[in-house]
Amino acid sequence: MLGRIEKPLPETLFQLNEAGAEMRFEVMAGRDLTPNDGFFVRSHTAPARADAGTWQLRVRGTAVTQPYTLSYDELLALPSVTLTRYLECAANGSAFYGELLGQAAQGAQWRLGGYGNAAWTGVPLAAILDRAGLAATAQEVLPVSLDGLRVRRPLSLEKANQPDTLVVYGMNGEPLPLDHGFPARLLVPGWGGMASIKWLGEIQVNAEESLVEWNAKQYVLIGPDYEPKLPRMGMPFDEGVMKSALCLPWNATLQAGELRLEGHAWSPDGAIARVDVSADDGQTFLPARLLGTPEAKAGVRWAVTVNARPGAHRITPRATDSTGRRQPLNPLSQAWNELGYNFGAVVPHPVLITA
Ligand SMILES: Nc1nc2c(c(=O)[nH]1)N[C@H]1C(S)=C(S)[C@@H](COP(=O)(O)O)O[C@H]1N2
Ligand SMILES: [Mo]
Q1: Is the dihedral of CA 31, 33, 37, 41 positive or negative?
Q2: How many whole angstroms separate alpha carbon 227 and alpha carbon 252?
Q3: Nearest Cα to Cα of residue 52 among 72, 24, 36
């Protein structure tokens, strides 16, 4: 796994698991944006090594009437936007199926650090598709990567045309780092990270729906509460789920008394409307203050001051978004799935408070 990641993975920033490098959430203390060197990495292969001078983005497909290619310079010359959006692995939180539901999911165990919030610069996918002369038969958009797996994961025309679905080449003011998809990647805000194809080489618009590894075998929900959508092995899904996390090490040691705690919250639907925090194992909740202006599909930082008494405690944040949805308090209220996707219940964070 680690042979696939280029950037340094210091223990101060990352916790490694069998699939990738999870950000240590204390990295987000005092920060709205995740720095590029601390951003989580989930790469199924080694990065594709493209040269910006020769790289091309091909736009074609069975529902494209005017196929064309864009060079890196041509992409950068198109009208661009810079937007803050979070990116999260669909398996983020998978460890809590085991830790809180008592039935471990298969595969890598992620706590909450398969999340990052960045300012992305790129071109709306809609503008790129516009030039391709789509036929009335167009069914879906299929991005294809340049890495060894030629990864592909379709998206609906509706999602492709959202103004914040982007072909991204900049991350926090820098060129997109190699591990995050240089020269360009797709960014599909609100959807599981698997939709945000890195090392993008081609965008197809097709008249047929495609059945691919990433919507038939992986990134489907498999479990007693889900009907497989044959021939897929489970129920396909696109969106992620709302979550909240504390910017503290797991099992942090803190001093008793008035404690200012920070965290992040994020939702794939509306903007985060409120965050409440319990420092007494979920008995009572205090409202946190949102820092900054919450925006749909962007992470928001929050802070709260609690009075902490000595002992081993759990601090539990709970997010609510502008659609009125709230994170469930009871982990058992959410369905288990074998591959550990979309864990959305509150996560009690263990801390040791010393006198
Ligand atoms: N080409 C390609 N794109 C990819 C992946 C990959 O392995 N190859 N991983 C996906 C998954 S599962 C996630 S969660 C995100 C992770 O993005 P990051 O590594 O930039 O954080 O990229 C997605 N895009
Ligand atoms: Mo992922």
Answers
A1: positive
A2: 40
A3: 72
Mapped onto helix, strand or coil, the DSSP state of residue 30 is coil
The pTM of this model reads 0.97
Q: How far is the CA of 83 from the centre of ligand 1 (A)?
A: 19
CB-side exposure of 50: number of CA atoms within 13 Å?
27
What's the rounded Cα separation, in Å, for the pair 89 and 67?
Answer: 32
Q: Say which residue the tokens 């167009």 belong to.
A: 138
Closest CA to 163 of 192, 196, 123, 201: 123
Ligand 1 atom at minimum distance from 43 CA: 7
Cβ neighbour number for residue 144 with a 10 Å cutoff: 18
Residue of 194, 217, 339, 341 to test ligand 1 pocket, by largest number of atoms within 8 Å of CB: 194
Cα 165 to Cα 17, 47, 63, 80, 216, distances in angstroms: 29, 22, 20, 12, 23
Phi-psi label, residue 28: left if phi above 0, alpha if psi -120 to 50, beta otherwise: alpha
pLDDT digits (tens, 9 = 90+) for 246-271: 999 999 999 999 999 999 999 999 99
